[in-house]
Fold:
Amino acid sequence: MELKKFLAEKGVGTALVSVFGAIETASKIVQGEVSRAGLGADIFGAKGSENIQGEEQQKLDVYADECFIKEFRACGQVAGLASEEQDNALQFDESLNGDYIIMIDPLDGSSNIDVNVAIGTIFAIYKRISDNGSELEDGDFLQAGKHQVAAGYVNYSVSTQLVLSTGNGTHIFTLDPKSGEYRLINENVQFPADGKVYSINEVNLDDFDDNLKRYAQHCKDKRKADGKRMYTGRYIGSLVADFHRNLLKGGIYVYPATVDSPKGKLRLLYECNPMSFLAVNAGGKGSDGTQDILEIEPTELHQRCPFYVGSPVMMDEAIG
Structure:
């Protein structure tokens, strides 16, 4: 079943379907550029600039950001957008009657572009708080994750897949290269209750707090009845790729606070909230190590936080 038909059958309103149409169009354009990287297209490598987080921007970061902004602006239903690649939130004056606010990481894992590792786009969709037609307010963008009306990501890999939730299950679509349509391949996907994989960058082990050190050792020690290890370590360094594997196979992803990143490294609004929303709608959990990610009230646009997400048994063992 095609994406728009699926959304309509689930009772998603025409305005929100239009927003997903913008995501569909932009992601297909970005996918086309990703697939051409290395074929002489001037899209590989660093842009020579940094985003507000002080991270070096890749050329595809900027390209993807511009592409999604263009499509959201054109769809007429989005009043404003905040992007990991933009210093400040954007107001779309031509569509201030729109109901929706977008938070987006246009190209997650972009440091892996030059080595051909899976990368992605992560997005969250909120209803605006301010009155339609009025100027946008800070509160439109600084909403807790529990107020998301939809979220998802696009995984640019062996195939291009769109994973989304509108608050009633998490669903996976694959881009059919022949028809150019996203087709449903897995409705109401569920995190396995327990997993096989823990995704932690253990090079930072000495910087972890005592609880996480204990959990990492627990993952190494836990055995099945036959004596074989229960868990294995897998860490790609691309949130979309690590999350997608764990969603299908079962597992936990952790990017904790460290000495170098005492508030964590991942962004609450662009990464942690949408991924937690997807996880919860697939029977998983998301936490900052002490509280539910979706309950955190953000105070700034590019706020960072520690992030734990995954299968419920592993999450309970990790955060206690």
Q: What stands out?
A: The first strand starts at residue 46 and ends at 50. The chain has a mean pLDDT of 92. The helical segments are 3-9, 14-36, 59-75, 138-141, 210-221, 239-249, 268-280, 312-319.
